[in-house]
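Homework-ish question, so no full write-ups if that breaks the rules, but can someone show me the predicted structure for this set?
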Amino acid sequence: MTDRRLRGTVLVLSALGATIAAYLTYTHVADVPVSCVTGGCRAVQTSSYAELGGVPVAALGLVAYVAVGSTALFRSDVALALGSAAALAGFVFAAYLVYVQAAILDAYCQWCLASDAVLLALVPLTLLRLRRA
Amino acid sequence: MSRRALAVVAVAVAVLVGGGLALALAVTSGEAKHETSTGPAAVSEVAAMLRGIPQQGIALGSPRAPVTLVEFADPQCPYCGEWARTAFPEIVRRYVRTGKVRVVFNGMAFVGPDSATALRTALAAGRQGRFWNVLELLFQNQGVENTGWVTEPLLRSIGDAVPGLDTQTMLDERDSPAVDRSISEAQALAYRAGVNATPAFAVGRTGQTLHAVRLESLDASGLEPSLDAALKS
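A: Not a homework solution, just the prediction itself:
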């Protein structure tokens, strides 16, 4: 895959992730129900794990996606490293959130899981860019 | 800095930041949920009994279960409590967890004012997919009829003990139109079924006519023959 393609894919995935995160941030802050097929979205979104120090966890995700997406616009080594770091940090945190849904809340939120899948895809892509550059 | 060094630093920073955030969330949320040391009884037993079983409002178990068990009960009635504490865990383990039976609870509130308060709280929790967690904790912590045991502190501590349940939302939604509707639907159903004592049960193939069950005993063996017969029919 060319770097051009990689950057395009990273941008598209970041935009997708940012959209999901923005939707979850909005529903959490506005306290409106999430459209949900798994039945556990509300339990997840209203749990004590949905906020960290008053900041919605979904907003942290939004920040990570914007960070990863913006680094795809640049070609410098530092931008590549920052992109990988943001994606990987997001993924480590997301992995813990999946654990929370499974082991503590016993409820799943499909949008959160979709966001986790996007992060999982972004990690190898950003690392590949860093390695190739 | 070489590219390799940059990559190592990026990975290290990422793991530190991601792990740090996870740790911070674990610490702050852990505190929020476990600040009361003397919570209601049987919290871990109820959580373990229900963990992973789907709930849709007042229904517990797979929507595709071949057999449906309908229960009519009052959160205050002592026999209902005894049945919930002795027979129900066994029924859940053998029939509900295995996807054979789906249980639908129709709440009655004839014993006294505490019945309605308890029932409304459980139904409000049902809007968050946690009806059965709250109902079973109420049965586990049941007091003597009409002594005022259904207190706000008890309901709050039960709510706080249920994973993934927002206690304040539950308490706020007790008088919502949706909860009113559930109560009147259950009453209408009990009237049509001719329920005159609790707990009362009806069993049948899902989607077909259900038949009333006469309980011979308040342990699981009182209901198992009916469930087995329905599963074979």
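Now go work out the reasoning yourself. Hint: DSSP finds ten helices and six strands in chain B.
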